Structure formats: C-alpha cells, structure tokens
Amino acid sequence: MNPVQTGKGLAVVTGASTGIGYELAKCAAEDGYDLAIAADEPRIQEAALKLKEFGVRVEAMQVDLSTPDGLRRFASGIAALDRPVELLLANAGRGLGDGFLDQDIGEAQRVVDTNISGTIALVHEIGNRMRMRGEGRILFTGSIAGFMPGTFQAVYNGTKAFINSFSFALREELKDTGITVTCLMPGATDTDFFERADMLDTSVGQGKKDDPAFVARIGYDAMMNGEGDVVSGWKNKLMSAAANVTPAETLARQHRKMAEPGSAEH
C-alpha cells in the first residue's frame, strides 16, 4: 500500500545515499516530510527503501549533480511531483586528497562542479520557488574545513570556504522573505568521504570521527529553528574558533600534518 501523502510539503535532500545526507533525510522522514532524494550512486535506491519505512513517500533519483544534465533531470523530477518544497538540504559533496598538481584535473574539477556549481544551481532553482511562496528552509552542508587552507585538500577546502561564505550572504539577502538559510559545518565524520577521496592513508582519514546521525540531527534542528550556522561537536567548535585567530600560513602547515598522504601513524 502506498503511503498517504502527508500534509507537510516536500524535503529535497542531495547526497542522500549514505552518511550525513542519508541521516538528514531520515530526520525529515521522522518529521513526516515526503522526500525527493538524489545521489550519484545506485545505493540511493537502497536508502529510499529504508526511508519508506517511516511511512512517507520517497522519490529517489540516481543523478550526477555535478553535470547540467543531472541537475536538469533532478529539477524536472522534483517539479513533476507538483509539491511545494518546504526543505532543501543541499548536502551533496565530493572530496579529493593528494597534492593539487598530482591530482587528476578532471577529478578536481568534479569536486568544484559538485560542491559549488551544482549546489548553487539547485538552490537558485528551488530558492526562487520558495520566494514566490514566501516560505521555505535551506540547509547547506559546509565544513569547518572552509576555515583553513587545505594543504593536500586544497580544492575541497576552497569549495567549502565558498559554501560557508555563500550561505551567510544568501541568508542576509533572504532576510524577511520567509526563507531561512542555515549552514551546517561538521568536522571529520564517519562516512565514505575519506575512502572516496583516497585519503585512508592520512592522519585525518584514520583518526576518530563524529557519528553522522549526531551531525545530521544538529544541522536539522538548527535549520528548523532558523539558525544561521552550527558547528557540530565541541572539538570542532574549538578548531573553528582557533582558525579565526590563527595566521593562514600556520593553518596550512597544521593541515599538512592531517592530510598529507602517508601521514597516518602506524
């Protein structure tokens, strides 16, 4: 039997197959929101099956949001549902380790296209619909990585610095429109991120990480409360505070110790 359409609108979650994105979708499902979820891997269908257990409708699409075609397909799929998007959780992200000149430039470009280009294009599309209705909530998954130069993660950290900054600017632009904008800024989290970024031989890749369910709940609650930003975990709060008063050159040197290939202690 198909779930009955809820009285609440739609929650759109990107990068929802695993990790923080899946947990964010789970928070919305527990709250009674129907879901439109996307990821660039087949596991998005497995995630959809689990999320349907909460009694909500779930539309899942395997699309690459780093490409214009993937964005068009996802936006069209959302529009076809003919439901107001109440929540947009822009979580899709991609990492990449190693020195910049040693990276495949196509892979580096894909990080930019996923983390920045695809994110702002989707937010522009759905944000305009929210503004026409005069209501909606947007959550970006930024990162404390955006506070520091990412030695051996230079492109990734640069994209997160963009997202952190962009979210604050958009929040101010949308003040008094009925739309709230929140930026979740986690630290290292126990997801597939480090494996996909080829960073398992680094200190940060092998170090202790936060639980994605814990991180997602903090971000989701902050969004629902209309907060501007939230850093998950007290250690990450300390790191972000320290980053604001530490010279960039020092931060870059410290980041090398975490992210340089082969830096993991054996």
From TrEMBL:
<keyword id="KW-0560">Oxidoreductase</keyword>
<dbReference type="InterPro" id="IPR002347">
    <property type="entry name" value="SDR_fam"/>
</dbReference>
<dbReference type="InterPro" id="IPR036291">
    <property type="entry name" value="NAD(P)-bd_dom_sf"/>
</dbReference>
<dbReference type="Pfam" id="PF00106">
    <property type="entry name" value="adh_short"/>
</dbReference>
<dbReference type="GO" id="GO:0016491">
    <property type="term" value="F:oxidoreductase activity"/>
</dbReference>
<comment type="similarity">
    <text>Belongs to the short-chain dehydrogenases/reductases (SDR) family.</text>
</comment>
<dbReference type="InterPro" id="IPR020904">
    <property type="entry name" value="Sc_DH/Rdtase_CS"/>
</dbReference>
<protein>
    <submittedName>
        <fullName>SDR family NAD(P)-dependent oxidoreductase</fullName>
    </submittedName>
</protein>
